[in-house]
Automatic annotation (TrEMBL):
Entry keyword annotation includes Oxidoreductase: yes
EC top class, as a word: oxidoreductase
Organism phylogeny: Bacteria, Pseudomonadati, Pseudomonadota, Gammaproteobacteria, Pseudomonadales
GO molecular function, one term: phenylacetaldehyde dehydrogenase (NAD+) activity
Organism: Pseudomonas fluorescens
Domain Aldehyde dehydrogenase: 2-50
Protein's name according to its UniProt entry: Phenylacetaldehyde dehydrogenase
SUPFAM superfamilies: ALDH-like (SSF53720)
């Protein structure tokens, strides 16, 4: 059943108040996911090596 659920978050027999500072913009319209989180950093940045001769 779990692979068929297309939702960002699912609560069963409980609920949780989410902090407005948590990441948002996730799967479909859930509002929990990419922006303001680690995934956003990975998405919007590029690894770069810099060597400086001292």
């Amino acid at each position: 059943m779990i692979p068929r659920i297309k939702s960002g978050s699912v609560w069963v027999n409980c609920h949780s108040a989410l902090d407005p500072a948590l990441p948002f913009g996730g799967y479909k319209m859930s509002g929990v996911g990419r922006e303001m989180g680690y995934a956003a950093i990975e998405h919007y940045t590029e690894l770069k090596s810099v060597l400086i001769k001292l």
